[in-house]
Amino acid sequence: MVHCLLPEWHPQDAVQLTWPSPDSDWAPLLERIEATMEAMVVAIARYQGVLIAVPDTATRRHLTHRFTCLGVEPARLKLVVAPANDTWARDHGAIGVARDGGLVLLDYTFTGWGGKFEAARDNTLTRRLADNGTFACAVEARDLVLEGGAIDTDGEGTLLTTEACLLNPNRNPDLDRTALEARLKADLGITRVLWLANGHLEGDDTDSHVDTLVRFCDPATLAYIRCDDPTDPHYPTLAAMEDELRALRRTDGDPYRLIPLPWPGACHDPEDGHRLPATYANFLIINGAVLVPTYGDAADSRALAALGEAFPGRDLIPIDCLSVIRQHGSLHCLTMQLPLGSLTRLN
């Protein structure tokens, strides 16, 4: 592995979270989202470390006490003051790449999903963590606009992404497909890009991040969302995406093993009624386990069963994400894995 974007199942030091601030868009839901993130921290810390960027020292003190009360081992937790605009660590966190026998974290430019939201503090968060001595490896800045949720990899040189996001003129308008692929290959050590032309969720602000639609579970397996309701407005685009996935081939010419994930009942915002982007594809792989978003829906158990088939050697941990989708993301969007060798000592 001389130069390669690391897959999510690569051994991890920790998962990075960005704690919500009372003055953020989470203000009306602060207690709910904090409860969800507490559950995530407790679950993850059973297997590995957790790095949390917090808005201030008061929050750091409070969370240190809170997680001690919840039984989290101090050696599994690192809290660093680094204010942010929002909580979506998947998109403002650094991306781990193996290079020449070592590890480097690439700090891409984050613009709030093409300028939709203020993101100046999010964009500098990785650099502030690095300046605080958080990372044990090199951190390299990149001027390319790229979010972690927009890409997935098999760890063997293949990158999976969507045209709607990476080719959107609100990201890198001066780069066409060929030029963008060249940049990604140079940075990430990938050898090919699989582009999906279809797939979209109502309520999604990301322009169709692949981590809401299709995910690698291992180099030969893709789990994807399937809409089985022909009356649902998502049905045509997700059916077309399924056809695309059936046509994809591995580098040896074999088709991928495809595992469909169920379609939850429509979730709507209780304030104005708009549809929320509930998806089971937004799971998180950690050392020895997979955290799975659930929505209080009958399909939750079927999603857990399907992912159990995809990850037979890992524990499955359901996390209630009804509060998370109120801000148009889900479980995976809140997290960024940090590969083994990323961090200095947690405490």
How would you characterize this protein structure?
- About 25% of the residues lie in helices and about 25% in strands.
- It has one domain: 5-stranded Propeller (L-arginine/glycine Amidinotransferase, Chain A), CATH 3.75.10.10.
- The protein has about 350 residues and is of the alpha/beta class.
- It is built from nine helices and 19 strands.
- Strand 8 and strand 9 form a beta hairpin.
- The chain starts with a strand and ends in an 8-residue tail after the last strand.
- The strands form six sheets. Strands 1-5-6-7 form a four-stranded mixed sheet, with helices on both faces. A four-stranded mixed sheet has the order 4-3-2-19.
- This is Agmatine deiminase.
- Keywords: Hydrolase.
- It holds the Pfam family PAD_porph.
- One of its GO terms (molecular function) is protein-arginine deiminase activity.
Radius of gyration: 19 Å
CATH architecture: 5-stranded Propeller
For the record, the count of structural domains works out to 1
Strand content: 25-35%
Q: Strand order of the main beta sheet, please?
A: 1-5-6-7
Low-confidence stretches: none
N-to-C CA distance: 30 Å
CATH superfamily: L-arginine/glycine Amidinotransferase, Chain A
Which H/E pattern describes the elements?
A: EEHEHEHEEHHEEEHHEEEHEEEEEHEE
How many strand elements? 19
Query: What helical percentage do the residues reach?
Result: 25-40%
What general form does the structure show? globular
Instruction: Kindly identify the CATH topology.
Output: L-arginine/glycine Amidinotransferase, Chain A
CATH class: Alpha Beta
| Main β-sheet description | 4 strands, mixed
Mean pLDDT: 96
